[in-house]
Amino acid sequence: LGYFHGMQPTIVHGDLKGANILVSSGRACLVDFGLATTRDSQTQLQTNIISVAGTPSFMAPELLEAPLDRRPCDIFAFGCICYEMYDGLRPFWDLSPQTVDTNFMKGNHPSRPTNNVCLQRGLDDDMWDFIQNLWHHDRKLRATASQASL
Question: What's the Cα-to-Cα distance from 101 to each of 7, 42, 60, 78, 86, rounded to whole Å?
C-alpha cells in the first residue's frame, strides 16, 4: 500500500479487504484494482467512477463526501483488515451494510476483541491503538501508508 500511495501519480486501491490480499511464501500482494483511482499532485482526482463503490464493511465514512484525496480511505480499510486478522471476523460482521455505514459515520467502532485467539495472535495494547488510529474518524489524523508500514 505504501508503494502505491507513494507513486506519482498516486494510486488508491479503493476496495481494500482481506479477499483482495493474496499471500504466497509470506509475501502479501494486492489484487483487484477494478475500483482503483489515480491522483497526481498537480491535478484533481482522476477516475472513471462517479458513484461511491466498494465493500461497506471496509469503507471509510468520508467516502460519502467524495474527498479528493482518497488515500486515507485505503488506510481506514487497512484498519478493518487488521481487525479482521485478529478477530477472524470483519468489523460489525453481524450488521447490515447500512447499519455498518451509520456506525462508522457516527465514529462508532467495534469493541476490542478479548478472546484468547486474539491474544495469541498478538493483539496487545499497542496493536489495538494502532488499529484505532487507522480508522480514526478524522481522516487527517490517520496514519499514512508509509507511517503504517514502519
Answer: 30, 32, 8, 16, 22
Q: DSSP label at 149?
A: T
CATH superfamily of the domain spanning 2-144: Transferase(Phosphotransferase) domain 1 (1.10.510.10)
- For the segment 89-114, the average pLDDT, to the nearest whole number, is 82
CB 72 within 8 A of CB 16: no
| C-beta of residue 52 within 8 angstroms of C-beta of residue 122 | no
146, 7 Cβ separation under 8 angstroms: no
C-alpha cell at 80: 478493518
Name the residues annotated as catalytic.
15
The answer for residues whose C-beta is within 8 angstroms of residue 54's C-beta and 6 or more apart is 14, 15, 35, 63, 77
Q: What's this model's pTM, rounded to 2 decimal places?
A: 0.80
- CA–CA gap between residue 104 and residue 56 (Å, rounded): 10
Instruction: Kindly report whether the peptide bond that precedes residue 9 is cis, defined as omega within 30 degrees of 0.
Output: yes
